[in-house]
Amino acid sequence: MKFPGRRKIKHYFPVSEAKPILPTSEVRPDKDTYIVGLDETIVDVIANISDDFLTNFNIQKGLSNLVDVDTASAIYERLTAEQSISDHFAGGTIGNTIHNYSVLADDKSVLLGVMSANIALGSPAYHYICHTSSKVDMNHLQGVSGDIGRGITLITPDGERTFAIAPGDMDELSHDHIPEEIIAGAAAFVSCAYPLRHQGKPIKQAMLTSMAYANKHHIPTVLTLGTKHLVDDHHDELLELIKRDVNVLAMNELEAEALTGFADPLQAADAILDYVDMVLLTAGPDGLYLCGHTESSLKRETTNPIKSANIADFNRWEFSRPMMRQACENPIKVFSHIDPYMGGPEKIRNTNGAGDGALSALLHDISANHFHREAQPNSSKHAAPFLAYSSFAQICKYANRVSYEILAQSAPRLSRGLPEREDSLEEAYWDR
What are the residue boundaries of the Carbohydrate kinase PfkB domain, all occurrences included (predicted)? Predict the structure, then answer.
């Protein structure tokens, strides 16, 4: 698999050696490096609308709104009539994340969820498969008789995103269909908190079963919070889940405030680190924070300018590498922050997927560490049980760059890897 950043690799054809086995799209737990993601499989319809449109359909602006099939059809027909639809994309927070991971890593990932057993041309399932990387292994999806979900992203002139979601059969994933052996061999397992909304649906238990398998086999478990509205509605249950099963938590500043009560992202991250090993917090125009733990004896001081906010000199140890708190004899908290890459795109038309892009970069670094540990177990890079390959500061740079690419293309899924001229990422940092 590719590591983040440029690598000088000599390509040659070993004609004297036997031909390798033909590559397979299906993951082999004993041979491949991959991540596993569980998601509500959904297709995103992107449309630009007025604020009056939201009022007419009684949709709350800036939130994720569940609508029935009839309402979704009425919305879609109106958008079609007004020629407001800009595109169709395969969607879902985790679907976006593992697609982007496979594009960045040029390697395999596994999607767990449902898929229509009979796929018609132009159906939601058809659009989903067409817009998902061929590196994403879909062999473990559960077949269902109905449609997967349809999520309509409504973008108002101020750039705010509002979601109208018709679930279809996307929440019918059974816990019996979760492959323990696939999760056991993964570099990381990632899910979103959305299934908590569906107390009577099978997908909630499927998510909990997957997280239990990941914890059983000591696989880093990653959770992204979804929306502020979801955190508000399921705060206590979500917090208990985080304390029990989550290693890495990803969110934006609004979700962090709903979870902790702190409006300041740095204070919110500090509070969350009492429960998890690492926090990825995107803060819109203020950039992003990556925070976690490392062993005190292994901490490394930054050469970047020292920053202070509600925590003095908070980025002092950002050249350290992340570790799980329980793996540290004397754990310390580490905080790193980065401003938007190049100030951000000149014009942002759609912020959908920027946080998912940042998370895919972090997952790539975690899986790169897994890959390198398997390939070079005696390397000094693995003298301690680090969670990721790079330093907090370096992962911030990588995540920030991927988020920029998502914002610049105004689509939640990367169509290619990072441009080569931007792919160096200051290689000297890799040996820190």
Answer: 135-296
